Amino acid sequence: MTPLAGYLLVAALLxxxxxxxxxxxxxxxxxxxxxxxxxxxxxxxxxxxxxYGPHPEVLTGMMFAIFSIAVAAAEAAVGLGLVIQIxxxxxxxxxxxxxxxxx
Amino acid sequence: xxxxxxILSALTVAGxxxxxxxxxxxxxxxxxxxxxxGLALLFLDLHAQFAGFAQILVYIGAVAILVVFxxxxxxxxxxxxxxxxxxxxxAGLAVAAAVFAVLGWAVLQSTSRLPQDVKAPTVTxxxxxxxxxxxxxxxxxxxxxxxxxxxxxxxxxxxxxxxxLQ
Lengths: 103, 166
Prior knowledge:
The structure holds 2 protein chains of 2 kinds. Chain A is an all-alpha fold.
C-alpha cells in the first residue's frame, strides 16, 4: 500500500464516521459535529493529494484546504447560531421533534 | 507507511468515533477536539505546516469552543430519555457503511496508479503569503466577504428578540 492510499483510506473512514453521526444522532449540535468531521476528511484528502501529487510547489491543494477551513469556520458559526435560535423558539434541539416548518 | 502515521490515524479515528458515539454531548465535543488535533498532526506529518497550525487555531481554538458554548446554551448536555440516536439510525448507518465501502474499494483499486514516494516539498510561509496575495487574491477577497457576512449573519440570527419588538 502506498502512503497516499493510507491517507485516503483514513479520510474515507473519517468521512463515513461523520456521515454516520450526521445521519443517526438526534441532537442538532451532534449533526453539525458530524458535518465538521466530513469537511475535515475532505481537507485531509486535499492535503494528501497536494503532498504526493506531481507539482506540490504550486500549492493548489494546500490553498484549497486553507480556504476550506475558512469556509467551514463560517459554516460552524452560522449553524450553531441557528441551533441556538431554534432552541429558544422550540425549547428543544431534538431533530426528531422538529417536524413543522411553521413555528 | 510509517509508524507515526499509524499512531496518528488511530488517534484521529478513535476521537471521531468517540465524538459520534458518546452519550454525553459535552464529552462528544471534547472527543471532537481530539479528532481535530489528530488531523492537525496528520497535516504536519504531510509537511503541510501552515495548514496544520491553521487547523489547530481555527478548529481547536474556535470551532470546538463554539460547539461547547452552543451545547451549554441549549442545555444539550442532558441525555434525553429516549436515547441519543434517531429512529432511523439503522438506515443512516447502512448509508455510511455503503459510502465507506465504495470509497475504500475505489482507493484500493487505484493503488497501483497512485503516485509512489515523492520527495517532501519544502514550503515556506513566505511562499504561501505571496501566492495568497498573488495567484489566489480573488478567493482571498471572497473569503473575507464571506467571513464578514457569516459573522453579521450569525449575530443577527442568534440575537435575542424581545416579544413584539423587532
